[in-house]
Amino acid sequence: MKDTMTAPEPPLLELRGVEKRFALDQSLLERLRFRDGRLRMDRREVHAVNNVSLTVNRGEALCVVGETGCGKSTVARLVAGLLAPSAGEVRYAGARIDNQSRRDLAPLRRRMQMIFQNPYASLNPRMTIAQALEEPVRYHNPDLAPVDVRAKVLEVMQAVGVDPSWRDRYPHEFSGGQRQRIAIARALTVDPEFIIADEPLAALDVSIQAQVLNLMLEAKVARGLTYLFITHDLSVVQHFGTRVAVLYLGTVCELADTATLFAAPKHPYTRALLSAVPQMRDGMPDHIRLKGEIPTPITLPKGCPFETRCAYADQRCRVEKPRPQQQRDGSLVACHAVEEGRVD
Ligand SMILES: Nc1ncnc2c1ncn2[C@@H]1O[C@H](COP(=O)(O)OP(=O)(O)OP(=O)(O)O)[C@@H](O)[C@H]1O
Questions:
Q1: What ipTM was reported for this prediction?
Q2: Domain limits, the chain
Q3: Which of 75, 78, 161, 256 is spaced 20 to 30 A from 96 at the CA atom?
């Protein structure tokens, strides 16, 4: 009899209750304080990422959005293994990766590639483009013949629109947009399945951003890529994302399919974010101007992180952290006011 009980495929990426705290960035002298008349170490921490749980399935492009300092880059770095979580788990294709050694993670390095805001971060200024692109191919395929290494690099250069006759030039000879194409090519040379892109368009001229975004979209379709895409730009999310996680003070306040999020944003913070972009205000109130203090990630509010700026906040919001609740349309929203039907 044919076995129809095959186990469902785990998500490609899963974050389970992930936290990241950084020691306050102070000199040793600044950290020493007199308290109760005694000299003590100031052990306050920056709570950059707080209890974040999310999944990314194969073929998806999950966009993470939010204001500056909300923890987007920290999430990307935790996933890429550049930072270790203070608590929680990061899983890739079902296996925990946050507690593995660099050596154990080596095979994963090929499957998961990162693209940064500043392509200089991934391009060595002393290497020609050919050297920069051949290096990862050789590293991950030590037995590949030099002719095949060159063929792979040629294929990728053509795919991203970098003229192969420029192979002996150095990164400084290229414009920002071309450098980002080269950084994308470098990521693609090793045939990854998952790309973590951290604000890959933010440093580019507006006229170039659409070209680079389309290139990443083409690569997604042609190579079956899955993306975790960090951005503060909602029009990029609308164009690129299949799902969106809205981050506020290191906490996911709303997680939804892109179409659902833009058609029916629910969390008061998401609504404020969308209302700030005139072309996205369809059926929404005019620009919602947020008032109130943004708490520091050093002293987080006891209840909802958004409570100090939320027009709907009441006593419950001040004392009790909202948990993500599944909505009828499948989105997850962490908001007492939404749960109680108080947001119109
Ligand atoms: N290495 C570090 N040491 C101390 N604090 C840090 C460190 N890295 C990040 N932070 C703090 O953690 C919080 C989240 O930072 P993060 O860079 O992840 O935010 P972001 O949303 O990516 O911001 P941006 O859009 O400005 O890049 C911020 O308060 C930041 O100052």
A1: 0.97
A2: 265-344
A3: 256
